[in-house]
Design goal:
single chain, mainly alpha
Length: 490
């Protein structure tokens, strides 16, 4: 080994540091004594050193130098010892014999030790292989030191070499499991990214029947039937082409029918198709029925289209429930008050409308031909009884002559038709035959609820005498018929 250099603490003579003039009796937090008051007895000795330095600075310099020298020496000794241990372990591994003294070589001269190159540590956690190799090196180094202390005892093959094998064997299944886990994850990713191809649904065959504007195609009603059985968003999305074709067929039918309704009732204007046709989507926010679509097509014509305060004409296309009707559905409170006042003050007006032979034949065919039977049949229709009052309305007596009409909150009328009526070649003529029968009824409701400017509802009071006579004659005829029926029963 090369000669070791002396440190600054060793270079100072013991005579200087050995004696002290004053000793400190302070208690320090560290284990060392304070050297503040330690100095030589003779000031001349300090002058011989040529420093002229006060005792405090000299003591600090000495302590710092001694500490740095001790640290450096300890570091060098540890490095040399580690290197010698590694060399001894390698020799023992190659020869399989005894470990000789590592301080001297065969020729008795000290061997020069070359420190191994240091590797720069990278960032992050070390890999498993590096951590395993570092642990093996530490174990082997510790065992070599123990063998050196044993003064020449045989080492044999170290056990530290066999342990890494077992560890490696134990780590291989983990690696396999990790690889299998990666494969499973890849399979899961493949499943997520997998695209499912759904075959396109073909349009229903027309069977040689063309789509026409004056009637509905049979495929339109078949689509509505399928929609009722599969009322889901996914199903409608899959059959979007069929839905678009049926909706176009319905809109073209409504467009041509609008022209005929305008001819029958001059108060109905020509409106865009979007203001007449109802949408197929349901509002399910406050409904117990969760189905998202209406299984029917419908349209309404009034002075303001499908919405507004006016009475309207209504056409409903649904397989097995097709109907044509009209009237005033859920009117506002002020409109309902006007209508009740008109029934109370001028009852002949609504009686004249309901007793129209064409109206009775079309909408009330089962009612007897007298006012009482006709008014009762009109008041007891399903649509009118849906939200009718159970008791008399406010301001009227229970024994009012037209109490059944005053209890109503809907004034509507309608009749069901066959599906074949909308598919037939004369479909619009059949529909217009029903709409024409209730033009007088719709006009009466609009004149009462929303009268035109300058319209005087009392203009027909001059006909009250004639109407009263007609009513009296009708009542007399009704009594005579009742008498005849009773005589037949006898």
């Amino acid at each position: 080994m090369p000669a070791r250099k002396r440190t600054a603490a060793e270079a100072i003579p013991s005579e200087i540091t050995g004696s002290s003039r004053r000793r400190s009796h302070r208690i320090s937090s560290s284990g060392k004594k304070s050297s503040y008051f330690e100095a030589n007895d003779n000031d001349d000795d300090n002058d011989e050193l040529g420093g002229g330095q006060p005792p405090r600075k000299t003591a600090k310099t000495q302590s710092r130098a001694s500490l740095s020298g001790q640290k450096r020496n300890k570091k060098e000794v540890d490095e040399l010892q580690d290197e010698d241990d590694e060399e001894a372990f390698e020799d023992a591994e190659e020869d399989g014999g005894f470990v000789e003294d590592k301080d001297e070589s065969d020729d008795g001269s000290e061997s020069e030790v070359i420190p191994p190159p240091t590797q720069k540590r990278g960032r992050g956690r070390p890999s498993k292989s590096q951590a395993g190799s570092a642990a093996i090196t530490k174990k082997s180094a510790g065992k070599s030191r123990a063998s050196d202390v044993g003064m020449g005892k045989p080492l044999g093959k170290p056990k530290s070499k066999a342990k890494p094998k077992k560890k490696a064997e134990s780590e291989e299944p983990e690696a396999d499991e990790y690889a299998e886990g990666e494969d499973d994850d890849d399979d899961d990713d493949d499943d997520e990214d997998r695209i499912t191809f759904i075959p396109a649904i073909k349009l229903r065959d027309t069977d040689g029947v063309d789509y026409e504007d004056t009637r509905l195609h049979k495929n339109t009603l078949l689509f509505l039937k399928d929609l009722k059985a599969n009322n889901k968003r996914s199903w409608l999305k899959a059959h979007d082409k069929e839905y678009r074709r049926s909706l176009k067929d319905w809109e073209s039918f409504v467009t041509t029918l609008t022209e005929k309704i305008v001819e029958a009732d001059e108060t109905i204007p020509e409106l865009p198709i979007k203001d007449v046709v109802f949408r197929i989507y349901r509002d399910i926010r406050f409904s117990k029925d969760p189905t998202p679509y209406k299984p029917h097509y419908s349209a309404a014509w009034s002075r303001t289209g499908r919405k507004g305060p006016y009475a309207c004409y209504y056409v409903h296309a649904e397989p097995g429930r097709c109907m044509v009707g009209g009237g005033l559905w859920h009117p506002a409170a002020d409109a309902l008050a006007r209508l009740r006042a008109n029934i109370d003050e001028r009852p002949h007006r609504i009686r004249r409308v309901l007793m129209n032979p064409t109206f009775r034949k079309t909408f009330l065919p089962n009612a007897k031909p007298n006012e009482k039977a006709v008014l009762s049949a009109f008041a007891k229709t399903r649509m009118n009884q849906e939200n009718a009052l159970k008791t008399k309305p406010k301001g009227f007596t229970p024994d009012h002559r037209d109490i059944e009409l005053l209890k109503l909150r809907n004034y509507t009328i309608g009749t069901y038709i066959e599906d074949a009526d909308l598919v037939a070649e004369d479909a619009q003529e059949r529909v217009m035959g029903i709409i024409s029968a209730m033009v007088e009824f719709v006009t009466y409701l609009n004149n009462v609820v929303m009268p035109d400017p300058g319209f005087d509802s009392d203009s027909d009071d001059a006909d009250d005498g004639e109407e009263g006579q007609d009513e009296q004659q009708g009542e007399d005829e009704g009594t005579e018929e009742e008498k005849g029926e009773s005589s037949d029963d006898l």
